[in-house]
């Protein structure tokens, strides 16, 4: 009978706290979004499963010796190994051709970062409400959700506000998945049908050498002027150079496949382990979710408005829709631009033109993360 | 909170200024690269040739198994037409 | 001349102890079994090579700073990273379709675990002989060999009896390779030719959604009732969900290939490093080998008998041979069932029917490991 | 040792009981899932359609290189038959 | 304004030291050599990029918590994990067939190691010049450059002279890339046109079993007589056995592809992190570069002379050119032999014959590293 | 430095001697292996057969899609020749 008592005590049931049950439900919702709704499944499926595992009483996944504890410590806390390796992989999958062909697109990528800095201001304003007490560090980590870039958000949150990391990562990936729902109304509200119909000149061909020199130039400029941004920008450019150099195809291939896949799984599980009830079930999480939506919306609007300004002062036509791609969320935002463009003008294929601001937005938010790290870190 | 708000406003201004400054700098960088590549195109062409030769099977040449298939097809056809 | 003395002293020859020579012979035998006899070569080849390396005097593979020391510490001792990642990979390679189509097969997977618990009793009985002094922890770690599942055995041994880990892992993989020799006589002794001829109804088609929900249901039930089993069952279900969800095929692909292959090499070398003469050349190792054979045999017999009972009380015919597949050893045990079935009835293909108890056996032994961990850990 | 044996016997009983209890529970779980899927089949069909579309080249459509091979074969044959 | 000052202080510009700028130029030169000149790009591209990253003020790549610090510590300093895993991968890509067919080629691989030991003597001689103060450990680590084998050089340098590791690795890979320029003049100076025209008998077919037993025999002999060489030789033979055994093709495939590629990137970045200005911008680095060239040249000459001696005392013809392949630098040195041979005799294909001394040179330098480790380590 | 030079000279001598001794030993090892394999060749042949069977598609057999291409080509050709 004593063994049976031990056994009963060793089930979870007498140990569950209500918060853990709610968090397991959150994990299941993330799995549902990932599998059925296909919301960024590469990350949200592992995060959701990690959330399930970490909230089991007695299983010890997130205690010393546990698998998730180890992954979080080795890959995020001690060194931001996982987000940087993912960024390297994303760099190796990115083609900067469209941006090199039309470098002014960088201005759109810059404008869209207004979403980040405006949200930072908004997060401090939220402190006026009861229950919110964000430090400037917290506010910066939350605001980076507006960068629409998962590894950047995880990297910055791990440095500035580790206790908010779980909520920030979930918000970042969820809103990236919601780009097709969030962006179109804003894009349509800020443009006239005529503007949306504007066709753009075909991009010039970019030579192999330009593509090779580009990542080297980016890292050198970053090193000189924004060293705090070099971990992110450096690994991104390294991955891109592996791809574009053409001399290490076998390395580039591994970086784009087995390495990024392995790290994605580990990163997702590790992030999931931060979805404990104490950390997640707070009013601050609601604030983070709200601020994330605000950040995305402001970034989209700022990109579109910047594109309208550019169009006015440019000799060549610029369709203002492509400004929305400046938030990054590669390549989904560019596809949304293309879709909204086609609705206005069935002969207007904006995809390639939107790739320029799209990859510019990746650089822009990595730069913004570097600035925040330098100023409030 | 007033102090924090001032800080946040300052970050908003400085942050956007630096982001724009940096990316404008990058526009200049890209234009310099493009000018450089246009100024010294010879090496580029040569390099393009070597780096553009992929290891993957060329699509314009018929692969050996396809050639075998073709000759088998033609051969089979002749016999049936006799 | 002094340099020559230093040189002579730096050869292994004046430092060899007899035990190390014997262990190197053991390593060579494992290589022979792996390469020539094709006994579970994926694990036994690295284990055999690790055994060679760890027994070299002066080479320091298993001392601080040595490669095998590092692999064992990082991947098994501090966190059971390697066995859990392998389990994830196995999960991603497992198709639960046959089990979902015929869930009663779980009873066969349950029955076969009798091999584990009976052997636990037997190990304590062995303490009556001179030279044996197994604790309840040791006995549990040995008994899990009867689960016929390598990563489960390594996981449990690393928790309950690390000093026996080498012998237990070698025994587990050796007996898994011997399944085609150990099982058929037992299967034939317990069944009549008529029983072995029984044909079974074709399995129903299982929908994609059932396959997706299944691993989630398994992990939730495990979390509620057997949290101690969640590391194993959780990573197994996670791997299976990566595969079945259909939305993260690139992750599933990496988990099934480069990740599991890399970890298999590391795990094998790390396990081999535990084959030192002090740990392995003991009378206890003989006991472990004997108990392992007993465990396999009892498990096979229990599975077959359970299948006979089921056949009696079931409206549909059940061929008792498929009970033998309940010990797991996927997919070898199922193939053995198919082969013995074909001998009795050349038109009787039992392979798909045996896959049900086969994968049920994997869950069964992971559950048994959880119970042992909860009760004696 | 007697005490250890009692412990081991207890583990044998409790262990097998829990293994059976747990796997029987799982049988129930599978049946509930099957019932649920049978009760709401519509979404399933839709989902099956989307998830069953593989990225791999379809085997029923002829691939472009094969089409090229065919036309080359036909073309070559015509010339030889003239 | 204060924020602007913080911002200016947070750029690299007020913090750069001249040495860091020079080292960044060194990094760019390495990238140029790798990408444009295709000098061993698999290693020199990551090393060059690592050199860029590590010399950025304030970025902290090589400080506690930094990515490169972590990679160096985990993969080289605490355990020579990265060089050993690369050696395992190289082993899995090596075919010993040509060597087994003509085992006397091992004598050429032995002779070429004279480059190592003569350079060791030369390094101590250099101490006569002002500014040089090499210990015997330093001298040994430098001399191993003559082994023309990157992982071996990194392995030994990490043990004997970690502060010289960056310069030694860069020298080793640079000279390996320069083999087609360094070797031919030496080869031609030491041979007559008639000797270069010598054709060699076709090699016998080597059976699968010989190829399987060979790595096992090598590791056993190494274990007995040179345990200090077992880390390198052991992992090399393990990789080779994975390949030749034919029973673990999926492991061999991963070792030759995703695993070695991943580790190559990590190793390159970690080595690059040792290219700091304090460590690299010393007169000793110039000495290392000079000694490396000497080592390669002496090794080449010794191999050719040994081949001439063998040719005199052998019943079968031996083309002395193949002795040059004994320095290893697989497979470049063998290709150079083939090319120089074809110049003298357009019908003389020496590639297969040169593969024997080529792979013998890998074993030879690993053995030499073991001797140095045993005697001065 | 004189002492270091003596040490280095000694290392040079001992090192080369050991390298040669070890690799000569290995020559002997290879010859023993070759003799062993020659003495017991039967098992070798059997093993060669099993390990030499590759999993890769045989190049002598026409693959199904090629066969389909051929028949399509022949079929198409017949129609055009009518
Ligand atoms: Na962005
Ligand atoms: Na089992
Ligand atoms: Na060498």
Automatic annotation (TrEMBL), chains A, C, E:
Top enzyme category: translocase
Enzyme Commission number(s) from the entry: 7.2.4.2
Single Gene Ontology MF annotation: lyase activity
Catalytic activity as recorded in UniProt: oxaloacetate + 2 Na(+)(in) + H(+) = pyruvate + 2 Na(+)(out) + CO2
UniProt keyword terms in alphabetical order: Cell membrane, Ion transport, Membrane, Sodium, Sodium transport, Translocase, Transmembrane, Transmembrane helix, Transport
GO biological process: sodium ion transport
Topological type in the membrane: Multi-pass membrane protein
Compartments in which it is found: Cell membrane
Cofactor(s) the protein requires to work: Na(+)
Xref: NCBIfam families: Na_pump_decarbB (TIGR01109)
Function: Catalyzes the decarboxylation of oxaloacetate coupled to Na(+) translocation.
Family note: Belongs to the GcdB/MmdB/OadB family.
Quaternary state and interactors: Heterotrimer of an alpha, a beta and a gamma subunit.
Name of this protein: Oxaloacetate decarboxylase beta chain
Species the sequence originates in: Agaribacter marinus
Gene: oadB
Automatic annotation (TrEMBL), chains B, D, F:
Source taxon at top rank: Bacteria
Localization terms from the record: Cell membrane
Pfam families given in the database record: OAD_gamma
InterPro entries recorded: Na_pump_deCOase, OadG
Catalytic activity: oxaloacetate + 2 Na(+)(in) + H(+) = pyruvate + 2 Na(+)(out) + CO2
EC number: 7.2.4.2
A GO BP annotation: sodium ion export across plasma membrane
Coiled coil feature spans: none
Membrane-topology annotation of the record: Single-pass membrane protein
Keyword annotations of the record: Cell membrane, Ion transport, Membrane, Sodium, Sodium transport, Translocase, Transmembrane, Transmembrane helix, Transport
Residue stretches spanning the membrane: 12-37
Gene Ontology MF terms: decarboxylation-driven active transmembrane transporter activity; oxaloacetate decarboxylase activity; sodium ion transmembrane transporter activity
Main localization category: membrane
Assembly behavior: Heterotrimer of an alpha, a beta and a gamma subunit.
Role, per record: Catalyzes the decarboxylation of oxaloacetate coupled to Na(+) translocation.
Family affiliation: Belongs to the OadG family.
Protein name: Probable oxaloacetate decarboxylase gamma chain
Species, as recorded: Agaribacter marinus
């Amino acid at each position: 009978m004593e063994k049976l008592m031990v056994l009963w005590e060793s089930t979870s049931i007498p140990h569950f706290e209500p918060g853990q049950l709610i968090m397991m439900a959150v994990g299941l919702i993330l799995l549902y979004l990932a599998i059925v709704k296909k919301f960024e499944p590469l990350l949200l499926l592992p995060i959701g499963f990690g959330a399930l595992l970490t909230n089991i009483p007695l299983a010890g996944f997130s205690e010393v010796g546990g698998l998730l504890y180890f992954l979080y410590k080795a890959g995020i806390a001690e060194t931001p190994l996982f987000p940087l390796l993912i960024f390297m992989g994303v760099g190796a999958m990115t083609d900067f051709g469209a941006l090199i062909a039309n470098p002014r697109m960088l201005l759109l990528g810059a404008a869209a970062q207004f979403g980040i800095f405006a949200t930072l201001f908004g997060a401090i304003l939220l402190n006026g409400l009861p229950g919110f007490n964000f430090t400037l560090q917290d506010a910066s980590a939350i605001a980076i959700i507006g960068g629409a870039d998962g590894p950047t958000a995880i990297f910055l949150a791990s440095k500035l506000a580790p206790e908010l990391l779980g909520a920030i990562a979930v918000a970042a990936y969820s809103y990236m998945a919601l780009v097709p729902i969030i962006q179109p109304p804003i894009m349509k509200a800020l443009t006239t049908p005529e503007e949306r119909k504007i066709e753009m000149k075909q991009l010039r061909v970019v030579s192999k050498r330009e593509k090779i020199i580009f990542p080297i130039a980016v890292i050198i400029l970053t090193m000189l002027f924004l060293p705090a941004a070099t971990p992110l920008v450096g690994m991104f450019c390294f991955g891109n150079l592996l791809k574009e150099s053409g001399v290490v195809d076998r390395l580039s291939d591994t970086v784009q496949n087995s390495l990024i896949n392995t790290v994605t799984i580990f990163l997702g599980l590790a992030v999931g382990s931060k979805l404990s009830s104490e950390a997640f079930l707070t009013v601050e999480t609601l604030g983070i979710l709200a601020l994330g939506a605000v950040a995305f919306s402001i970034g989209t609007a700022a990109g579109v408005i910047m594109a309208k300004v550019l169009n006015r002062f440019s000799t060549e036509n610029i369709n203002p829709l492509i400004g929305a791609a400046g938030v990054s969320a590669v390549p989904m935002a560019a596809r949304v631009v293309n879709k909204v463009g086609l609705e206005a003008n069935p002969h207007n294929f904006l995809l390639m033109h939107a790739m320029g601001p799209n990859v510019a937005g990746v650089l822009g938010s990595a730069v913004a993360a570097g600035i925040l790290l330098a100023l409030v870190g | 909170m007033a102090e924090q708000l001032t800080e946040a406003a300052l970050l908003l201004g400085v942050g956007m200024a630096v982001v724009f400054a940096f990316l404008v700098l990058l526009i200049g960088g890209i234009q310099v690269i493009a000018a450089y590549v246009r100024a010294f195109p010879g090496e580029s062409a040569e390099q393009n040739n070597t780096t553009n030769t992929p290891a993957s099977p060329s699509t314009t040449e018929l692969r050996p198994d396809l050639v075998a298939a073709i000759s088998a097809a033609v051969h089979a056809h002749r016999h049936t037409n006799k």
